[in-house]
Amino acid sequence: MSLLELRDVAVTYRSAAGDVPAVRGVSLSLAEGEALGVAGESGSGKSTLAMSLLRLLPRDALVSGEILLDGEDVLTMSWGRLRAVRWASASLIFQGAQHALNPVRRIGDQIAEPLRVHGMATGAAARRRTAELLEQVGLPAWRAGGYPHELSGGQRQRVMIAMALACSPRLIVADEPTTALDVMIQAQVLSLIRSLVAEHGIGLIMISHDLSVLAATCDRLAVMYAGRVVESGPSREVFRDARHPYGRALAEAFPTVGDPASRLAPRGLGGDPPDPAHLPTGCSFHPRCPVALVSCASEPVELWPASRTEEGRIESAEVSHTAACVHVRVHQEAR
Ligand code: ADP
Ligand code: MG
């Protein structure tokens, strides 16, 4: 059984201006100890998907489909059960999380908080566990007595990782955990997260707009566009042989860290991502696509087998390389 399985997950924000379908029909699965990278431009639905996993979306968000964590559907859990699952089974390191630390509370007390809330450790045991967690994320134990303002951005992000690990979760979802950090620190923090999850057999979903960063740290990749997964598969294969034109654009993008323009539009790809409230018909990517056919404006696309390696072809459909592009379907049919 997968640690996490998403079946046809959709999230629609109901707003006064109309419905915003931010995530549409996403199916994914994650095994224990596996790292899945989710990439896509701003607005592609990555954070919405991440928050749906722990039901952290605002009240106006309508969620459908199934989100199975160890076979149990997060969407139908009671609030009591959900509270137990948050932190203890799955935890989220969210975008800009380092700013979420309480400035007037000691770091050690903040790391120990989830331990206390979930009745996992108090007093001396909690202090021991806190010291151990700080050490795991590469900070000296004496930092427990200090305050967030005494730390650099990268160190604060390490504290957030320690908090996420506190209750020994089985799944960690990291939503652009390093976007606010400089390049060197970014690489360190990502490899730290990756090695910790591997060491403890934790499943990881790592979200970023940077496909190259994900390819270096994750086993598998999923590329999102306009709320859908448009390509997924083993990291190396998706990165080196992206079959969806959007996946190719991201693989070639290498965005410059800190440059907002390169975050919004991968190099070589014109136009803007669509407004989810007004999605193009057919393939959502067709207005920006360099290889679009006339039929792409009207014919729906789905994820078709896309692997061009022997290895990829014999893998089961679940782990193999797929892409939602008509050129991939044509290619497969021609074989
Ligand atoms: P990403 O994390 O990939 O940048 P998001 O999940 O944040 O994307 O957003 C996906 C889409 O949903 C965007 O078009 C965004 O404007 C819209 N959106 C996000 N949050 C809300 C909300 N609370 N109400 C309405 N629309 C929202
Ligand atoms: Mg986001």
Can you lay out the helices and strands and say which pair or pack?
Elements: E1 4-15, E2 18-30, E3 35-39, H1 46-53, E4 61-69, E5 72-73, H2 79-88, E6 90-93, H3 107-117, H4 123-136, H5 153-165, E7 171-175, H6 183-200, E8 203-208, H7 211-217, E9 220-225, E10 228-234, H8 235-240, H9 245-251, H10 260-264, E11 304-305, H11 310-314, E12 322-323, H12 326-333
Parallel strand pairs: 3-8, 3-9, 6-7, 7-8
Antiparallel strand pairs: 1-2, 1-4, 4-5, 9-10, 10-12, 11-12
The CATH superfamily of the largest domain is P-loop containing nucleotide triphosphate hydrolases
How many domains in all?
Answer: 2
User: Distance N terminus to C terminus?
Assistant: 33 Å
Q: From the 3D coordinates, which CATH architecture of the largest domain would you assign?
A: 3-Layer(aba) Sandwich
The CATH topology label of the largest domain is Rossmann fold
Low-confidence stretches: none
